[in-house]
Design brief:
The chain contains 14 helices and twelve strands. The protein is α/β, with parallel strands linked by helices. Strands 2-8-7-6-5-3-4 form a seven-stranded mixed beta sheet, with helices on both faces. Strands 9-12-11 form a three-stranded antiparallel beta sheet. Strand 5, helix 8 and strand 6 form a beta-alpha-beta unit. Helix 5 packs across helix 9 and helix 11 packs parallel to helix 14.
């Protein structure tokens, strides 16, 4: 075995990125197994159980024998419920609304990132995809591995982590095929304002060849205002791929139910699902029908809890020497600026700071470089997922404050 030769892997697989939250989680798990006391803020998933009515709907589906394949685009009952919810939440009415035929259900929302890129770009011909930076790392990974050119668009702390529309306009070329928008945003928790969306739409109207991928997985976790989608603006619905799912709103991350909505691309997405996953879990689809159509008390309770935790963690972080944190508008992430804390403690950058917090303070967070290359002039940041108990937030930020004070040079 020692000298055995194995076939080579493809260049494509070597270029495939990852989601570093899971890499850090493995570090945390190893330290915990070795006896370390770690408070973790690294994984972005609700810490609540799936609501009981949704669990019961899944059990009922099992008992009724709903175990087999479904149509690749999802069961009609779920697609109809999704269309109603998409129209309601985004204010889509009349001819500017979506139907069940426009909806494709998948095993989570994440596969549709790849399906959208595969459906709108060609491999190795220089097609470009613009995406937010920092951003969900799978955007860049899927752009690269599917042979398109990634064009990062830097988010600005001074703009509440929106990008400058002028920089978007400057980034567009004849090769641009898609723009990825994410609001509320991972990792910053920022949400695009009505003016931000209007400015983006005005630019997009000049470039009708560009698709818009609207990643709106946190659409029901927005705190400062009503959710707004670019799909609701004039001339935008037909070219916008709305992506959402059950994972965040109803604590259903492991149930793997997401969806994409676009009239033109629905048949193409359906073929991609047929070629890859065949269909989403039949049982999970019936659970999602109940999530959408059933009582929303549990979802509202979770949202209220996240809002309370947001205010708690932002308040605490802003009391730590060298750390400043804007109040995020949605999702369950805080993105504090730690530039001064790094300087005070002799850390070269946020990744060194992050590692020291893990090994010396017993607190697990992610660094900005886990979400793309640092944006020039924006300093150093770390990400907290405040999908954690209030005790964990108090204790974790307390440990960080103590560590910074102890290690200030």
């Amino acid at each position: 075995m020692k000298n055995e030769q194995f076939p080579k892997l493809s260049n494509r697989s070597s270029a495939l990125g990852t989601e570093n939250a899971f890499v850090v989680l493995a570090e945390v798990t190893a330290l915990q197994r070795a006896g370390s006391d770690i408070i973790s803020f690294c994984i972005g998933q609700p810490d609540f159980p799936t609501p009981i009515n949704i669990q019961d709907a899944a059990v009922k589906a099992i008992r009724e024998g709903k175990h087999g394949y479904t149509p690749s685009n999802g069961i009609p009952e779920l697609r109809e419920a999704i269309a109603r919810e998409v129209n309601r939440l985004r204010g889509l009415t009349g001819t500017s609304s979506v139907s069940a035929d426009d909806v494709v259900v998948g095993s989570g929302a994440k596969p549709f990132i790849a399906y959208a890129i595969l459906s709108t770009t060609d491999f190795g011909v220089g097609d470009e995809v613009i995406y937010p930076n920092p951003g969900f790392p799978i955007y860049e990974s899927q752009i690269v591995v599917n042979g398109a050119v990634p064009v990062p668009l830097g988010l600005k702390e001074a703009r509440n982590f929106a990008f400058d529309p002028a920089e978007l306009e400057a980034a567009i070329t004849p090769r641009t095929k898609m723009l990825i928008l994410n609001t509320p945003h991972n990792p910053t928790g920022g949400s695009l304002s009505a003016q931000d969306l209007a400015d983006i739409a005005a630019i997009m109207r000049k470039h009708p060849q560009i698709w818009i991928y609207a990643d709106e997985i946190y659409s029901r976790l927005i705190y400062s205002s009503a959710f707004q989608s670019i799909a609701a603006l004039p001339d935008m619905l037909g070219r916008t791929i709305i992506s959402d799912g059950a994972s965040k709103t109803w604590a259903m991350t492991g149930w793997r139910i997401g969806y994409a909505v676009n009239k033109t691309l629905a048949p193409t997405f359906t073929r991609w699902v047929t070629n890859t996953e065949s269909c989403a879990s039949h049982i999970s689809q019936w659970a999602a029908v109940e999530a959408l159509n059933g009582p929303q008390d549990a979802a509202e309770m979770m949202k209220a809890s996240f809002l309370k935790r947001r205010d708690l963690i932002v308040g605490l972080l802003n009391q730590v020497p060298g750390i400043s944190c804007l109040t995020p508008g949605g999702a369950f992430y805080a993105w504090p600026n730690v530039t001064e804390a790094c300087r005070m403690t002799g850390c070269a950058d946020s990744e060194v700071f992050r590692k020291k917090l893990l090994t010396e303070a017993g607190v697990a967070v992610l660094a900005d470089i886990h979400f793309g290359a640092r944006v020039a002039g924006e300093g150093q940041h770390i990400r907290f997922s405040y999908a954690a108990s209030e005790k964990a937030i108090n204790d974790g930020v307390g440990r960080i404050a103590d560590w910074v004070k102890k290690n200030t040079k």
